[in-house]
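Now for today's protein.

===
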Amino acid sequence: MISFALTDDQQTVRESMRGFAAAALRPKARECDEAAAIPDAFYEQAWELGLVATQLPEAVGGYGAPRSPLTNAIVLEELAYGDAALALAAVGPALFAYAVADQGTAEQQQAYLPGLCGDRYQAASLAVAEPSPTFDACAPRTTLERQGSGYVLRGSKCAVPLADRAGHFLVVAREGDGLAAAIIARDAAGLTIRDDKTLGLKALPLATLELDGVRVAAGDKLGGSAGADVGRLLAHSRVAIAALLTGLGRAVLDYCIPYTKERVAFGEAIARKQSIAFRLAEMQMEVDCMRWMTWKAASQLEYGHDATRAAHLARTYTADKGMWIADNGVQCLGGHGFIREHPVELWYRNARTLGVLEGLASV
């Protein structure tokens, strides 16, 4: 029988992350958005939770817990309930770490993962999105071509998280008729990093990578000569974004319900008006649907099934409905929905940005 009940461990993780989001993310969200920056102290505070190292092998310094995309989706929902930009900063190194742990060679794991299991925050990132209106993650314009004993990367990547501090990047590119991913250092010759400016997620450092003939050693192609299943890597990322949008949608709903109960217009609380009450009810239904779709895709990843379709559907549905919920949150607050005194306008901008970008998180 299918069950949506959480295990005791998952319930404990959920409650822990909920408390951390309430204490460390929600209070800092507005300040970080206004400053378009995240304090170094927050990175260190989040690192102490072991969000990345917990599911990395003991052989490379991790805690050796089983990889669980479903548990990670639960974590991301709770963190995004506090703030999506800070959530992405907290778990950002997992973009690189989980890909190498899941699909990297033994040599790649020994070379790159120990640094992500230390006592201090260490950033690494994934480069998927490209600055093109017709961008398709499954058909990138960035290319990885064989040259001599190694490879060469050419192209552009945008919206790369943590690019201001990442020591290494995992770049998704087209290799012949297929997809590949290559590891490069931030000081690689031919790599230029330029800051991006976005509508939402303003606190999160995002950047464009210009790859002008960047050399890649043969041993730095993810998975070595056998390559990697980049489609599965993308599925992990899409489930993560779906989880973030679910948490953000729940935050909007939980803010609107008490507001509409307290806001009085024409002698009664606006929550008693059908147009508002029905809207809130539908927002609740959509949050639940978003969560079930996210958990279904995460579960398929966890059990080793092909989650391509489920991840794509979860990502598409949550992007659509997450934006719909955020928009209706603004409408429920009326004029107050447009001012910074309330967080709904921030969530609206974050929902729009999450809905159009790829490769911001992983489960």
The longest strand covers residues 150-161. Residues 230-262 form the longest helix (33 residues).
